[in-house]
TrEMBL record:
<dbReference type="GO" id="GO:0009055">
    <property type="term" value="F:electron transfer activity"/>
</dbReference>
<comment type="function">
    <text>Ferredoxins are iron-sulfur proteins that transfer electrons in a wide variety of metabolic reactions.</text>
</comment>
<keyword id="KW-0249">Electron transport</keyword>
<dbReference type="GO" id="GO:0051539">
    <property type="term" value="F:4 iron, 4 sulfur cluster binding"/>
</dbReference>
<dbReference type="InterPro" id="IPR050294">
    <property type="entry name" value="RnfB_subfamily"/>
</dbReference>
<dbReference type="Pfam" id="PF00037">
    <property type="entry name" value="Fer4"/>
</dbReference>
<dbReference type="InterPro" id="IPR022569">
    <property type="entry name" value="Fd_C"/>
</dbReference>
<keyword id="KW-0813">Transport</keyword>
<keyword id="KW-0003">3Fe-4S</keyword>
<keyword id="KW-0677">Repeat</keyword>
<dbReference type="InterPro" id="IPR017896">
    <property type="entry name" value="4Fe4S_Fe-S-bd"/>
</dbReference>
<dbReference type="GO" id="GO:0051538">
    <property type="term" value="F:3 iron, 4 sulfur cluster binding"/>
</dbReference>
<keyword id="KW-0479">Metal-binding</keyword>
<keyword id="KW-0411">Iron-sulfur</keyword>
<dbReference type="InterPro" id="IPR000813">
    <property type="entry name" value="7Fe_ferredoxin"/>
</dbReference>
<protein>
    <recommendedName>
        <fullName>Ferredoxin</fullName>
    </recommendedName>
</protein>
<dbReference type="InterPro" id="IPR017900">
    <property type="entry name" value="4Fe4S_Fe_S_CS"/>
</dbReference>
Amino acid sequence: MCAPSTSSLPQARPNAMTYIVTDACVKCKFMDCVEVCPVDCFYEGENFLVIAPDECIDCGVCEPECPVDAIVPDTEDEPDGKWLQVNAEYAKVWPNITVKGVPPADREQYERETGKFEKYFSPKPGKGS
């Protein structure tokens, strides 16, 4: 008996464009994005989510799900590639998250704030799912 075909399954594309999570997610962490991702490439920190760049298939379904517009294509990253680096680094050490959790109760007070990464980012892992 032949093994089932995997050609119809989403495949990771190393060195391809990816989506990244940026500053707006810090202290908000709505998590609507994790449930629509077909390849489960989100990883959870204590107060921030990241996308594993080598797992993202660039489908873009997560981008419109974020109410604070924290998810963008890596082509919109800062010139030094800061967010791609942050996403890649923490996706290696934080737990995978595939189910939306409870967003922080105080998230509304941080929704419109900028520069949150430098002020509030925690490298501690989240709970994952």
